[in-house]
Amino acid sequence: MPQATSDGELSGIPDAETDAGPPRAGKAGARDPERRCIVTMERRQQGELIRFALSPDNQVTPDLAAKLPGRGAWVTASRDSIDLAVKKGAFHRAFKKQVKVAPDLAGQVEQLLVKRILDQLGMVKRAGDLILGFEQVREEVRKAPPAFLIEASDGSEDQRGKVLALVRGLYTPDLDEAGKPAGNLELPPVAGCFLASELGMALGRDRVIHACVKYGRIAHAWRGELERLSGFRRVWLPGWQPSSATGQKISDDTTTRVSGGAPPATPVSTELTNLK
Question: Which residues make beta-bridge pairs with 36?
C-alpha cells in the first residue's frame, strides 16, 4: 500500500491530476473534454469517466453531473477502476492530502447512476420520445427504427422474443461480399438491466416491461449514461449492444462495455438522496 509522506501526499503510485473545478455557467469550452483517469493515467472523453469531489469534511463524493464545487478527480467509469482507486490510495494522491473514502464507493456510484438514468428516462417520456407497451412498441418499430429498445429483465421471454424477432426482421443489415454489414443500417441496442418495477416507478406506472426510445438529443445523452453504467452491471442484452461499445476488460475476463458483465444480485433502489 502507498505510504503517507510528511507533506500529506502518498508515495508508491503515479502522479495524478485534478481539475480546477466545474466550468462556470455560460463559459465556452469543449463539449466533452478529455480528462485523465487517476488510476490508469489514460486520457478519455469526460463522458467515459466519473468525477469525484470533496465534501466539506473531506469525504470523497461521486459527482456524476460534474457540477460540485472545488477540485475534482476523475476515474474511468468501471467498478474495477474505482475499487483500485480506493485500494491504492489514488484519491489521497490526487487531492494531495488524506481524505475519507467509503470502501463501497463503486457500489454508491452504481446506485447513483441507476437513479440518474431512470430520472432521465422520465425526461424522455415527457419529451414524447418514449413508447410504452408490447403492442405500442411493435407498432412504433414498424414505423421507424428506434434509438433504443428497453426490455425489463424480469419480463416475459416469449414477448421479448417476439419484439426482438420483429426488429431483427425489419432492421438486420444486408451483408456485403466480405460478410460485413453494408451501409449504415444496424440493429438498435437493447437495454435489459432494469426490473419492471424500477421502470414503472420512474415512469409513474406499476410495471413497465417493453419500451422504445425515439431518436433525439435526450436519447443520445441517455445512451452515454447507459454506457457508463455498463462498467458496473450488465446493461445490454447479448448481441444487442451498441456498435460503438468499447471492450474494457475486467478481472473475470468478461467485457463490461460489450456484454456488460454480471447483472446485480439484488435490485438497486431508486430512492436515493440527490447530491447537492
Answer: 43
Domain limits for position 49: 3-103
Task: Give this prediction's pTM.
Answer: 0.78
Among the listed ranges 39-48, 52-61, 97-106, 212-221, which one has the minimum average pLDDT value?
212-221
Query: Residue 268 burial (CB < 10 Å; 0-12/13-18/19+)?
Result: buried
| Residue 174 clears pLDDT 90, i.e. is over it | no
Question: What amino acid is encoded at 253 in this protein?
Answer: D
Q: Are residues 111 and 224 part of one domain?
A: yes
pLDDT in tens, 77-94: 999 999 999 999 999 999
* Rounded-to-integer distance, Cα 263 and Cα 230, Å: 10
Contact between residue 193 and residue 121 where contact means Cβ atoms under 8 Å apart: no
For the chain, the domain total comes to 2
Q: Which residues contact 36 (CB under 8 A, 6 or more apart)?
A: 16, 17, 42, 43, 74
11/257 Cα distance (integer angstroms): 32
DSSP letters, 45-110, are EGGGEEEEEE-TT-BEEEETTS--SS-EEEEESSHHHHHHHHHHTHHHHHHTS--B--TTHHHHHH
